[in-house]
Amino acid sequence: MHIGTRFIIGTKKKPLDSIVLWCYPIDTMPYIAINTVQELNNTQKEKIKTELGRLMSIIPTKNEAGLLIDFSGGRTFYKAGLKVDGAFIDLRLFKKSELGPKKEYCAEVFDLLSRELGIEKENMYLNIGEFENWGSKGELH
What we know:
It is a single chain. This protein has one domain: Macrophage Migration Inhibitory Factor. The chain is 24% helix and 38% strand. The chain has two helices and ten strands, in the order βββαββββαβββ. The protein has helices at 42-56, 99-117; strands at 3-10, 15-23, 31-36, 68-72, 77-79, 82-84, 87-94, 124-131, 135-136, 139-140. The radius of gyration is 19 Å and the shape is globular. The two termini are 20 Å apart. Mean pLDDT is 86; it is low at 1-8 and 20-24.
């Protein structure tokens, strides 16, 4: 999602043209860590990265332009004391977002990883942390 502002070029009496400048809010940078039991190959990472970028715009003020993705494969997960093929997804956002879009994003990410990696949704977990302070570009926002 982005915010557009229309500017008129020319004079009040005779506008020459108008343009729209798109401004991305400062809080567009989400971070997502994908932890899996499986070691992911480059093809899998590229496919998942592309889809996560596309899906990120489900959450208002977030988009692929600022998305930082961290893949970590070869993890070991135990559920109820038993070793399982699973995934833990850690999504971190600058500022609070509405619940509805977060639920939709969560469902889409589960569908993506189930489809691409064959992981059962019962063995996937997604945590969303929302932070008031976020450091980037050399400063704290």
